[in-house]
From TrEMBL:
Domain DNA2/NAM7 helicase helicase intervals: 2-166
Any Gene Ontology CC annotation: nuclear body
Entry-linked PANTHER family: DNA2/NAM7 HELICASE FAMILY, HELICASE SENATAXIN ISOFORM X1-RELATED
Pfam families xref list: AAA_11
GO terms under biological process: termination of RNA polymerase II transcription
Highest classification ranks of the organism: Eukaryota, Metazoa, Ecdysozoa, Arthropoda, Hexapoda
Listed GO MF terms: helicase activity; transcription termination site sequence-specific DNA binding
Protein's name according to its UniProt entry: DNA2/NAM7 helicase helicase domain-containing protein
Organism of provenance: Lygus hesperus
């Protein structure tokens, strides 16, 4: 099995393809942890990660760009920690788990990690330069190959757009 995701305008996707869209996978991933024990474990792990990142930030003579990376990682973990804490409180009180759509920042982080972890990303040429993909692939992710199948819908300059993402073969 390959880790496949589709990135682009959800309204234009076929309903069957929508199930593997990065946004649908992110929503599903965030909604799949309503078990209190699992949530408590995740919260403890996140607290440990945050402390580890803070220790690494303090103890190392990190360069400015490394310091920013630590700050970004801490912020991501804290956002997720707040979501899991709220979800745990809701589950323990008998309410419905938190809806990830309420926390756009966390949903974007989850979607970004899905795109980053994907082995195959299906998208149109117009969507391959979207902010969603650019943000997810900004940390020097390299593709070994890009297949362009636009059935003459694209112009020649548009075909070069994927080269922004450090592609070896087009």
């Amino acid at each position: 099995k390959f880790k496949l995701t589709r990135v682009g305008n959800e309204k234009m996707m076929h309903p069957l393809v929508h199930e593997i869209s990065s946004s649908a996978l992110a929503r599903r991933g965030l909604m799949s942890t309503p078990d209190p024990e699992t949530l408590e474990t995740e919260i403890m792990l996140l607290r440990a990660r945050i402390q580890g990142f803070r220790n690494g930030l303090v103890s190392s003579k990190a360069k400015p760009n490394e310091q920013q990376k630590y700050h970004d990682l801490i912020e991501k973990c804290e956002t997720r920690l707040a979501f899991y804490g709220k979800t745990l409180a809701n589950v323990k009180s008998g309410k419905a788990p938190c809806n990830p759509d309420e926390n756009r920042k966390l949903l974007n982080q989850e979607e970004s990690s899905i795109i980053t972890g994907a082995e195959i990303i299906a998208t149109t040429l117009s969507s391959c330069s979207s902010r969603k993909i650019s943000d997810a692939l900004s940390d020097s992710t390299q593709f070994s190959c890009c297949i362009v199948d636009e059935a003459t819908q694209a112009t020649e300059p548009e075909i070069l757009i994927p080269l922004h993402h450090d592609i070896c073969h087009l």
